[in-house]
Design brief:
Strand content: 15-25%
Distance between the termini: 109 Å
Shape: globular
Structural class: alpha+beta
Number of helices: 3
Length: 199
């Protein structure tokens, strides 16, 4: 009889221990499920934030680069402004992407196209006009010069359509940049031809 009681007590204790173990396993699984849900929720929120950032819409596009190698950047231009004021905004926004201050005295329609009249304090004439925070890394002064001119030419042509000629002057004067090789000379008599024509 005593032996039966001992066996019953022993079996009862094992049953209780098994239940505790099952409970612990159940708790662990529950915690794991909760952690998985938190991770999935966090990933879902991150993806939503990335989609929001990628879904930002701009009303205009800047083309930054040289010749046939351009990268596109979205930008908002005030379309209610005067047409030449819009062109001025485009030039300044190109400067912001490059990290340089590009100033224009004025931009006018004429000579069968658009004339951009740069300030002499502007890049690429004044290399102290670097302001930083650019999105494009320029390796040297020659690349900067041609990236500025090609980017403005390409963007204005795309923005206004009709393939207008783009003319460049600085303070109403012909442009000569003798700090690069070969020297760049842009006369009054012809529009800018694209960097491949001058290198």
């Amino acid at each position: 009889m005593i032996i039966l009681v001992v066996i019953a007590v022993f079996l009862g204790l094992n049953y209780l221990n098994d239940n505790d173990s099952m409970k612990n396993i159940s708790d662990i699984e529950s915690n794991n499920d909760e952690n998985d849900n938190n991770i999935n929720s966090s990933l879902s929120n991150n993806n939503a934030n990335e989609e929001e950032n990628n879904d930002v819409e701009y009303n205009s596009t800047l083309y930054i680069g040289t010749e046939n190698n351009f990268k596109e950047y979205g930008v908002d231009i005030n379309k209610e402004a005067d047409v030449m004021e819009q062109a001025k905004q485009i030039v300044e926004e190109i400067g912001a992407v490059l990290g340089y201050n590009i100033e224009v005295v004025d931009i006018v329609n004429g000579k069968g196209g658009i004339t951009v009249n740069f300030s002499s304090n502007s890049a690429p004439f004044n290399m102290d006009s670097y302001v930083g925070n650019g999105k494009v890394e320029i390796s040297d002064e020659k690349n900067l010069v041609y990236t500025i001119f090609d980017s403005i030419q390409k963007t204005l042509k795309e923005y206004f359509g009709g393939n207008p000629d783009i003319w460049y002057v600085v303070e109403d004067q012909e442009i000569t940049i003798d700090t690069i090789e070969p020297e760049l000379y842009l006369p009054y008599e012809e529009p800018y031809q694209g960097s491949n024509a001058y290198k």
